Amino acid sequence: MSTIDASLSFLTPIIDDHDFDEKSPLVVGVTGLQGSGKSYLSSKLTTELSTRYPDLNVINISMDDFYLTHADQLKVNAAFPDNPLLQGRGLPGTHDLQLATQIFSDLRTSTDRATVRVPIYDKSKFGGEGDRLSEDQWQVVSSPVDIVIFEGWFNGFQNITQAEVQEKYRGSEFFHSHPEISTRTLDTVNDNLVAYQQFWKMFDCFVLLYSPDLQTVYQWRIQQEHELISTKGRGMSDEEVYKFVNRYMPCYILYYESLHQLGCVATAKRNLNLLLGPSRNVLRSSLV
């Protein structure tokens, strides 16, 4: 079974049971390791659900589109010069949460025939450092919105205590081989994560693309870059992929397994875990 088929089987009864006339939009959180296919899944779900439910307005939003502007990210770089995890976009603390809050509020409350502009982030700007596009280039969404597919690589991650950060730090070979990352730098990111958890509370259900072996993320991302080079003539080298993924690995080590075990949404059986094999095939599905 594909991730799309498994997700549709999970979502269909939830959608059928949702009162779209009386309730806010149904928000579906999606996450997975870098290269696991979460963006592909989110896009395909949007298309498939729009076909199955032609009377419903289904949209796809990525947390990536709420990255800080290039100018504001430079301010973060300057404010945390000794924290490699915050040098550039990606981790908690590098998003415009005020903008994200406003957009979600607009999507949940807009009346018929209103429109909402959703930001678009162009990762190719400034030599790959990225920047938000001007507002006239944003995605225009018609209201009312019925289903929001919201994907992001750390969706659902919950901050932990400082003692837990230290315990995971001491127990991980990754941190032993990357001395530039300290518990102090991790504490900053862990503290930043708290502000994001308001968005997780909006999720009505959640899909996690799961691999028990975190090393898989390197293999998947390298494969993606090789495909990019083959089709578009450009992409990261294997060495660049390792450097890129290394910035994300600390969060996977701190939060990923807890998300798998506990889920994100408090309602029972509203969290779908899809165990993926090396080729991203679904080996097993389970509900939390």
From TrEMBL:
Please name the Gene3D superfamilies in this protein's record.
P-loop containing nucleotide triphosphate hydrolases
Instruction: State the compartments where it is located.
Output: Cytoplasm; Nucleus
Record's superkingdom? Eukaryota
| A Gene Ontology term for the protein's cellular component | cytoplasm
Q: Which UniProt keywords apply?
A: ATP-binding, Cytoplasm, Kinase, Nucleotide-binding, Nucleus, Transferase
Any one GO molecular function term: ATP binding
User: What is stated as this protein's family in its record?
Assistant: Belongs to the GLYK kinase family.
Report the protein name in the record: Phosphoribulokinase/uridine kinase domain-containing protein
Query: What organism is the protein native to?
Result: Babjeviella inositovora NRRL Y-12698
